[in-house]
Amino acid sequence: MEDVIVLRTAVPVVCHFDPACPFAWVTSRWLLEVERLQPIDLRFQIMSLSVLNERRELEPWYREFNDLAWGPARVCAAAEALHGNTVLGELYTALGSRIHVGRNKDYDAVIAESLDELGLSTALAKAAHTDEYDGALRASHRAGQEVVGEESGTPVVAVDGVGFFGPVLTAVPRGEEAVRLFRATRTLAGIGAFAELKRGRGALDIR
Who has the most CB within 10 Å: 58, 154, 172, 191? Predict the structure, then answer.
Protein backbone atom coordinates (compact mmCIF):
# COMPACT_ATOMS: atom_id res chain seq x y z
CA MET A 1 0.00 0.00 0.00
CA GLU A 2 1.40 3.38 -0.97
CA ASP A 3 2.28 5.75 1.87
CA VAL A 4 -0.16 8.59 1.20
CA ILE A 5 -2.01 11.12 3.31
CA VAL A 6 -5.72 10.36 3.36
CA LEU A 7 -8.05 13.31 2.88
CA ARG A 8 -10.72 13.66 5.54
CA THR A 9 -13.63 14.17 3.17
CA ALA A 10 -14.24 13.24 -0.43
CA VAL A 11 -13.22 16.11 -2.71
CA PRO A 12 -15.69 16.71 -5.58
CA VAL A 13 -13.92 16.25 -8.93
CA VAL A 14 -15.42 16.42 -12.42
CA CYS A 15 -13.49 15.25 -15.47
CA HIS A 16 -14.85 16.81 -18.66
CA PHE A 17 -13.73 14.56 -21.51
CA ASP A 18 -13.96 13.96 -25.21
CA PRO A 19 -13.67 10.18 -25.79
CA ALA A 20 -11.43 10.72 -28.83
CA CYS A 21 -8.87 12.98 -27.12
CA PRO A 22 -5.68 11.16 -26.04
CA PHE A 23 -4.76 13.84 -23.49
CA ALA A 24 -8.17 13.60 -21.82
CA TRP A 25 -7.66 9.84 -21.63
CA VAL A 26 -4.34 10.18 -19.78
CA THR A 27 -5.77 12.75 -17.37
CA SER A 28 -8.81 10.58 -16.69
CA ARG A 29 -6.60 7.57 -15.86
CA TRP A 30 -4.64 9.75 -13.45
CA LEU A 31 -7.86 10.73 -11.67
CA LEU A 32 -8.90 7.08 -11.42
CA GLU A 33 -5.52 6.37 -9.82
CA VAL A 34 -6.13 9.18 -7.34
CA GLU A 35 -9.60 7.76 -6.64
CA ARG A 36 -7.99 4.40 -5.84
CA LEU A 37 -5.78 6.03 -3.21
CA GLN A 38 -7.83 8.94 -1.86
CA PRO A 39 -11.51 9.62 -1.12
CA ILE A 40 -12.50 11.81 -4.06
CA ASP A 41 -16.01 12.06 -5.48
CA LEU A 42 -15.12 11.59 -9.15
CA ARG A 43 -17.68 12.21 -11.87
CA PHE A 44 -17.31 12.23 -15.64
CA GLN A 45 -19.00 14.71 -17.97
CA ILE A 46 -18.85 14.91 -21.76
CA MET A 47 -17.37 17.80 -23.66
CA SER A 48 -16.89 17.78 -27.42
CA LEU A 49 -13.98 18.89 -29.56
CA SER A 50 -16.34 18.51 -32.52
CA VAL A 51 -18.66 21.13 -31.03
CA LEU A 52 -15.75 23.34 -29.99
CA ASN A 53 -14.19 23.34 -33.47
CA GLU A 54 -17.18 22.94 -35.78
CA ARG A 55 -16.96 26.50 -37.19
CA ARG A 56 -13.18 26.89 -37.11
CA GLU A 57 -10.75 26.62 -39.98
CA LEU A 58 -8.47 23.68 -39.17
CA GLU A 59 -5.63 21.77 -40.74
CA PRO A 60 -7.09 18.94 -42.88
CA TRP A 61 -5.88 16.18 -40.54
CA TYR A 62 -7.40 17.91 -37.51
CA ARG A 63 -10.66 18.62 -39.34
CA GLU A 64 -10.91 14.89 -40.11
CA PHE A 65 -10.23 14.06 -36.46
CA ASN A 66 -12.97 16.45 -35.28
CA ASP A 67 -15.49 15.21 -37.82
CA LEU A 68 -14.95 11.60 -36.72
CA ALA A 69 -15.02 12.51 -33.02
CA TRP A 70 -18.76 13.27 -33.21
CA GLY A 71 -19.56 9.56 -33.12
CA PRO A 72 -18.20 8.47 -29.71
CA ALA A 73 -19.27 11.74 -28.06
CA ARG A 74 -22.82 11.39 -29.38
CA VAL A 75 -23.03 7.81 -28.12
CA CYS A 76 -21.89 8.96 -24.68
CA ALA A 77 -24.56 11.66 -24.71
CA ALA A 78 -27.21 9.13 -25.71
CA ALA A 79 -26.12 6.67 -23.02
CA GLU A 80 -26.21 9.37 -20.35
CA ALA A 81 -29.65 10.55 -21.47
CA LEU A 82 -31.05 7.02 -21.28
CA HIS A 83 -29.12 5.53 -18.36
CA GLY A 84 -27.94 8.46 -16.24
CA ASN A 85 -24.54 10.01 -15.56
CA THR A 86 -23.12 6.98 -13.75
CA VAL A 87 -22.87 5.04 -17.01
CA LEU A 88 -20.26 7.45 -18.39
CA GLY A 89 -17.28 6.23 -16.38
CA GLU A 90 -17.48 2.62 -17.56
CA LEU A 91 -18.47 3.58 -21.10
CA TYR A 92 -15.56 6.00 -21.37
CA THR A 93 -13.17 3.29 -20.16
CA ALA A 94 -14.54 0.80 -22.67
CA LEU A 95 -14.31 3.27 -25.55
CA GLY A 96 -10.96 4.75 -24.53
CA SER A 97 -9.27 1.41 -23.97
CA ARG A 98 -9.98 0.55 -27.59
CA ILE A 99 -9.32 3.98 -29.10
CA HIS A 100 -6.20 4.96 -27.19
CA VAL A 101 -4.62 1.79 -25.81
CA GLY A 102 -5.73 -0.51 -28.63
CA ARG A 103 -5.28 2.26 -31.22
CA ASN A 104 -8.48 1.28 -33.02
CA LYS A 105 -9.75 4.25 -35.01
CA ASP A 106 -12.69 2.36 -36.51
CA TYR A 107 -15.13 4.14 -34.24
CA ASP A 108 -18.18 2.17 -35.38
CA ALA A 109 -16.43 -1.06 -34.36
CA VAL A 110 -15.19 0.50 -31.12
CA ILE A 111 -18.69 1.67 -30.20
CA ALA A 112 -20.31 -1.69 -30.99
CA GLU A 113 -17.71 -3.62 -28.97
CA SER A 114 -17.93 -1.21 -26.03
CA LEU A 115 -21.71 -1.35 -25.83
CA ASP A 116 -21.59 -5.15 -25.99
CA GLU A 117 -18.97 -5.29 -23.22
CA LEU A 118 -21.18 -3.25 -20.89
CA GLY A 119 -24.43 -4.96 -21.84
CA LEU A 120 -25.90 -1.75 -23.24
CA SER A 121 -28.33 -1.76 -26.12
CA THR A 122 -26.68 -1.85 -29.52
CA ALA A 123 -29.37 0.62 -30.60
CA LEU A 124 -27.26 3.31 -28.91
CA ALA A 125 -24.72 2.93 -31.71
CA LYS A 126 -27.17 4.63 -34.07
CA ALA A 127 -26.69 7.87 -32.14
CA ALA A 128 -23.18 8.18 -33.59
CA HIS A 129 -24.61 9.11 -36.98
CA THR A 130 -27.58 11.29 -36.00
CA ASP A 131 -28.05 14.61 -34.23
CA GLU A 132 -30.80 13.26 -31.96
CA TYR A 133 -28.76 13.81 -28.80
CA ASP A 134 -26.78 16.82 -29.97
CA GLY A 135 -28.81 19.12 -27.72
CA ALA A 136 -27.70 17.15 -24.66
CA LEU A 137 -24.12 16.97 -25.96
CA ARG A 138 -23.96 20.72 -26.54
CA ALA A 139 -25.41 21.47 -23.11
CA SER A 140 -22.85 19.20 -21.43
CA HIS A 141 -20.06 20.76 -23.48
CA ARG A 142 -21.23 24.26 -22.57
CA ALA A 143 -21.20 23.37 -18.86
CA GLY A 144 -17.56 22.33 -19.16
CA GLN A 145 -16.65 25.60 -20.87
CA GLU A 146 -18.46 27.63 -18.24
CA VAL A 147 -16.54 26.02 -15.39
CA VAL A 148 -13.26 27.18 -17.01
CA GLY A 149 -14.62 30.62 -17.88
CA GLU A 150 -13.50 30.67 -21.52
CA GLU A 151 -13.35 28.41 -24.57
CA SER A 152 -11.10 25.50 -23.81
CA GLY A 153 -10.11 22.14 -25.21
CA THR A 154 -10.03 18.91 -23.28
CA PRO A 155 -9.28 17.77 -20.65
CA VAL A 156 -11.12 20.11 -18.33
CA VAL A 157 -10.93 19.17 -14.67
CA ALA A 158 -12.98 20.82 -11.94
CA VAL A 159 -11.77 20.43 -8.34
CA ASP A 160 -13.90 21.81 -5.53
CA GLY A 161 -15.97 23.51 -8.25
CA VAL A 162 -12.96 25.33 -9.77
CA GLY A 163 -12.26 24.40 -13.39
CA PHE A 164 -8.99 24.19 -15.29
CA PHE A 165 -7.91 23.32 -18.78
CA GLY A 166 -5.76 20.37 -17.73
CA PRO A 167 -3.72 19.14 -16.09
CA VAL A 168 -2.41 18.07 -19.50
CA LEU A 169 -0.23 15.02 -18.92
CA THR A 170 2.00 13.02 -21.25
CA ALA A 171 1.91 9.89 -19.05
CA VAL A 172 -0.25 8.62 -16.19
CA PRO A 173 1.22 9.40 -12.75
CA ARG A 174 0.93 6.46 -10.36
CA GLY A 175 0.97 6.00 -6.62
CA GLU A 176 2.29 8.83 -4.46
CA GLU A 177 3.14 10.91 -7.54
CA ALA A 178 -0.52 10.84 -8.62
CA VAL A 179 -1.64 12.00 -5.18
CA ARG A 180 1.00 14.75 -4.99
CA LEU A 181 -0.17 16.12 -8.34
CA PHE A 182 -3.78 16.04 -7.20
CA ARG A 183 -3.00 17.87 -3.98
CA ALA A 184 -1.06 20.48 -5.95
CA THR A 185 -4.00 20.90 -8.32
CA ARG A 186 -6.35 21.32 -5.40
CA THR A 187 -4.03 23.91 -3.89
CA LEU A 188 -4.08 25.91 -7.14
CA ALA A 189 -7.88 25.61 -7.24
CA GLY A 190 -8.00 27.35 -3.88
CA ILE A 191 -6.02 30.38 -5.08
CA GLY A 192 -8.37 32.84 -6.74
CA ALA A 193 -5.57 34.75 -8.45
CA PHE A 194 -4.15 31.68 -10.20
CA ALA A 195 -4.90 31.60 -13.95
CA GLU A 196 -2.38 29.59 -15.98
CA LEU A 197 0.73 27.42 -15.82
CA LYS A 198 2.29 25.72 -18.85
CA ARG A 199 5.45 24.19 -20.30
CA GLY A 200 6.43 22.26 -23.43
CA ARG A 201 5.05 18.75 -23.93
CA GLY A 202 7.13 15.61 -24.24
CA ALA A 203 6.16 12.45 -26.10
CA LEU A 204 2.73 11.10 -25.22
CA ASP A 205 2.71 7.76 -23.38
CA ILE A 206 -0.81 6.30 -23.26
CA ARG A 207 0.02 3.36 -20.98
Answer: 154
